[in-house]
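[Discussion] Sanity-checking designs against the backbone

I'm trying to build intuition for which residues belong where. Below is a structure token string of 386 positions. I'd appreciate it if someone posts a full sequence so I can compare it with mine line by line.
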């Protein structure tokens, strides 16, 4: 199969970038002919929001030429903002090639992509089974800036008015996400469900408990990830309980966190690559996951379990649903972050009692082998329905 993967990298690397790379590698390893078209927002100039981001002629021509030159069977878009633009959907449509788009976040419904505003979950733009725009503009939901919000809404308006989203099929990462899009007016028959996956599953790592010590936070240093709530709770614990914080964030915010919380039992490790992250997971008693928004998926949860490392997480959105599916129960989950200190103090006892046990079979959908089967089945259905 000739597959064209399209992805616009973010200025701050995130989970979507990792998923794009993982799926490209997965497809190639199974002998599929993968062609890629990528841009990087590090190369974006301010004026690009007025031109390239709405409809990029360069991307339109580039994708159209790739489709023609490589006899592409299916186009799979992970992210098109901002330099690639929705023009790629028109290019595929004109060449009569089916398009599948992974819904990594809620950007098609919410201009900040997170359904989160003013410190809490917000679904104000999803009223009456359609996506509203006025609330986003009134609140300046894109980076707290009404002008930037207006420019982003302009991208959506152009794509909708010119029918660039018509005929697309979608991959939702969870049933939870699919239900939200359906409630907002999307046709459920156009949305497939396939989770992300992690390479290098080694569940036997969980048998090496003698090598595990300390706890781990793994992810961006971002208020939405609940990192500051975690640090506040950790400050209440005795110094014998150590938290390693692996990740980076906006320089000013990261520096403030280090200044306020770096002490004997809280260690900031900075940004780590995927290989080092897996090593840290292998050596940790548990990973802490306390995101304050629904999350698109919660990739670090799967990475943690792939190394046999339990997760202490909040019962919220996709993170909570993933944990309940893997544990087969909601008992290991926290209802509120205020429970964290006691969870940590009781961890060894609770783990010995089986609270954090999980069935390895529950992780099958997140393995490369099963994920490849699911992805190819989706591709074949999209091509067959063309």
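Best answer:
Here's mine. Compare freely.
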């Amino acid at each position: 199969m000739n597959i064209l993967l399209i992805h616009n990298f973010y200025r701050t690397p995130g989970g979507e970038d990792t998923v794009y790379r993982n799926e490209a590698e997965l497809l190639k390893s199974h002998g599929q002919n993968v062609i890629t078209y990528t841009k990087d927002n590090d190369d974006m100039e301010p004026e690009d929001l007025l031109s390239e981001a709405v409809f990029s002629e360069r991307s339109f021509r580039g994708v159209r030429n790739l489709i023609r030159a490589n006899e592409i069977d299916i186009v799979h878009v992970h992210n098109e903002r901002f330099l690639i633009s929705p023009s790629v959907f028109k290019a595929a449509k004109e060449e009569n090639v089916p398009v599948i788009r992974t819904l990594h976040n809620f950007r098609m419904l919410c201009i900040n992509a997170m359904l989160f505003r003013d410190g809490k979950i917000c679904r104000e733009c999803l009223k009456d089974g359609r996506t509203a725009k006025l609330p986003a503009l009134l609140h300046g939901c894109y980076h707290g800036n009404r002008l930037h919000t207006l420019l982003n809404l302009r991208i959506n308006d152009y794509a909708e008015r010119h029918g660039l989203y018509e005929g697309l099929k979608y991959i939702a990462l969870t049933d939870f996400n699919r239900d939200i899009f359906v409630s907002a007016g999307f046709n459920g028959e156009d949305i497939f469900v396939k989770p992300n996956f992690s390479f290098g599953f080694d569940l036997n790592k969980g048998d090496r408990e003698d090598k595990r010590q300390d706890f781990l936070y793994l992810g961006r240093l971002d208020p939405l990830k609940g990192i500051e709530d975690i640090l506040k709770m950790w400050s209440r614990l005795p110094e014998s309980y150590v938290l390693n914080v692996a990740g980076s964030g906006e320089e000013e915010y990261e520096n403030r966190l280090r200044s306020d919380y770096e002490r004997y039992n809280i260690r900031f490790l900075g940004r780590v690559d995927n290989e080092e992250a897996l090593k840290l997971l292998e050596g940790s008693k548990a990973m802490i996951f306390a995101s304050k928004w629904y999350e698109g998926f919660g990739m670090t949860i799967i990475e943690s379990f792939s190394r046999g490392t339990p997760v202490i997480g909040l019962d919220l959105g996709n993170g909570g649903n993933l944990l309940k599916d893997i544990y087969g129960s909601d008992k290991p989950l926290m209802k509120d972050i205020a429970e964290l200190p006691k969870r940590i103090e009781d961890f060894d006892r609770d783990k010995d009692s089986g609270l954090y046990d999980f069935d390895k079979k529950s992780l099958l959908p997140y393995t490369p082998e099963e994920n490849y089967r699911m992805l190819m089945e989706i591709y074949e259905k999209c091509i067959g329905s063309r």
